[in-house]
Amino acid sequence: MDEIVKHINDTNASYRDPSAGDAKNTDLFLDNDQYALFEGMGDQITVKYSKSNLAQAILFIASILPRKYDNSSIHKHVNYTRTFVEEQLDMLDGFFKIDGQPVESITQKWNVRINVPKKNGEIDNRFYFNGLLQDFEFLDENSNVRKSKFTIRNYLAGSYSDLHIKKDTDGTFSVWVTNAIHPVDDGKEKGLEELKEIPNSSSILPRQIIYYGAPGTGKSHAIKVDTKGAHVVRTTFHPDSDYSTFVGAYKPTTKPTYVRDSTGRVVEERGEKVVEDRIVYEFVPQAFLQAYVDAWRYYAKAGSEEPEKQYLVIEEINRGNCAQIFGDLFQLLDRNDEGYSEYPITADKDMEKYLSDAFHDIAIPNESDLGELFDDPFIAQKIGLGQVLVLPPNLYVWATMNTSDQSLFPIDSAFKRRWDWKYIPISQAVDENTKQPMGWSIHVGGKDYDWWSFLQAINEKIGGLTNSQDKKLGYFFCKAKDRKIDADTLVGKVFFFLWNEVLKDFEQEQDFLKDSDGGYLSFDQFYRVNEQGKTEIQEDKVVQLLENLGVEGSDSPENIKPIDGQDASNESDQSILDKYIDFWNKFQESYEDSGEYKGLFSNPKGQRQNWMDIGGLNRSYHICLSVTYRTNKLRMQVYFRQDRDKIALEKYIDNLDHVSDAMGQEVTTGAGSKFTYLQLFKEFDMDNDNWDDAFRWYHEECVKFKHLADEIDPK
Predict the structure, then answer these.
(1) How far apart are CA 417 and CA 434, in angstroms?
(2) pTM for this predicted structure
């Protein structure tokens, strides 16, 4: 047997809205005698779909609409519309892509399920596949990016479709759909009940997870990205945190109250009732209960569909005493396979009263299913009345932990095992928009040093001293302003941490701390009091430490010199240097009258002798302008870093003739040690030619290249 044909009845057919979540109707039942084709293939098989076949299948379904779909997860009447057809075909376009490129065929993993043990100890001898859902994105008719989930069941019409599965020579299985003109029910699916899908582990979001790592690695940022657009309640633990500040408690609050006289009547003045604020005690919910109630609200609202996710994010979880803060909520963190708390806990009377009021407009759905799951037919009512607490499957509790703070309140093993753990390593940060390294730099002593190079060097020293990862520094240990970290921030935050948390326990006479006078740097040497009595950074000492560590110069524009031209640093005549300063000052003054240039570029600040970086492309590569006095040239260069911008550069190199045509003159290429560049020139005599003409040329060429970048390398 190398091919089977499964006739599809309503149990295996489904309709999914494009925005539907992980609903239960995602199992695919086959006949038990068809298992022979898959025997010996393990717990998972790889199937292959044809885009053209599934397009035909969805068009057939459209031809037999309207239809009413009735199964365990959804009861929906679907009418034929043009939008239905176009949307389904758009979804196929989105699903059949590999690395962003359209393909005719694509593969998916299916989980093989047969003889599965039930909770009651019996064996489920049905043969079926699950794990059929797969996330993907597609462009709708308005070119908006939308997310959806693919399942083969969306392309099966109950009583009409036959599903063909053929074993290929490479061990994969080709899957395709054919349809009959008249419906037939072969009766082979009667009595089959839907099972909750066991998704591929790669697509399961852990309901409790702790992001941990060294300080500044971006743990909070990672959670922010992963929960973007979702419902989030955020709190931070600290040594004074306790159960009442995490869950809730009675607190004094002010409440407007009518003033009454001794007989109990409301006092009136000038025909109006007198109101005053009085102190009353009310139960005030904190982060946990806020997230808990909202999660059940979204759960109830969803009905049989996938509920919206609610996140409870706990920052710095180990800075508080978790046993004291969680109390009996600790039991709720044990989740069953369906995502509910395995063990409900009884609420105290104060919490019960609050929850009963909060749930007054929430009807917990699926009462019978919950009753069966918890072996308590009244569990849904108890939850709604606030008598017991059960975490719903759409409530996610995520936390962060600095490994350097793990000694504050150690987390015991019983608590740890109820969480998944995700290590966030120290790494070079990537810009979310450009997908390129952020390129932060340290600006000190008139020069920029590469921040990532510093981190690598200092972390190597920290690791050598402490034999630990805990005290190392992550990329976001301190904040940069406009991608630069100034000397004050470096010394006040980074160096202070080094001396206070790392070097205090070790011999201070380390090679990387050597000073130019033969001694060793101490923290106080980074500061001095100037003539005005103000404390300032001794930048030469900072530079000394950076040089000792071998920190590389940054690829910041301020450190890049025009590659082919004559650098003004070689010009000994001060009058020429002054001329450059005057030239760039007037260039900045020309900004207001620069037309389209002003709408595309910001006015650059400062200049680097005979050249200026204007950036302006909203990409990792950027434009530099230069002028040389002795060679009488204006130049515009576009710099691409060789280890970062290779793909973007290739787009321009492959279209170099078009680039030259668009710029109106020949564009040449060149390379330095770290950069490759495109450039073009214009003859210009600083003494005799009109500077306004030079500024106008700069403006026009920059505008041309900005439009060219949008064409060749669109964002």
Answers:
(1) 38
(2) 0.53
